[in-house]
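Researcher: Structure prediction, please.
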Amino acid sequence: IEDALRDISNDSVRAYLGQYGDAVDHRVQQSIEQAGKLHEANFFQASIVFATTAIELIVRFLLIHPLIQAAFLSEEWAYLLTQRIASGRTAEDRKLLPKILEHHEIDITAVLLESGDELWDTVVSKVYPKRNKIVHAADPTTAEEAKLAIECATQLRTDVVLSIAEKLGF
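Model: Predicted structure follows.
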């Protein structure tokens, strides 16, 4: 029974990612690419904004939406509850994500950056706050801060999203 429920759950994730995954991933890759180009051109504030946008797309549409839907067997209920849970509040998404991933046997706190720092902690404690300061107060930034945001977005995609996709046979 557990295997059957897990298969049904995985089928739900596959269906969601099969329908939306490529389009969302394309936007993620474009955002990361733009962040890199902006970084190279010394537009560090804009680079951080694009990298953080990529992170938000990953969190909401490649992780939270499909993995929450996997928890429900009725597509209609899954859709309604996903819309209610992931309703545009990125702060709530940040709190939910580690718990949702844990349910799927993924420890996001174990994913480390090149520096040895935890990826998710860096996203939550450095990247998002810096993006908010840029957007709301035109806070100046450095090349290193922009590079860190790009690294976080890239690694979240490769080490978390692509590993889930691979497990599901994509």
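Model: Helices lie at 2-40, 44-69, 75-85, 90-103, 119-137, 143-167.
Researcher: Thanks, that helps.
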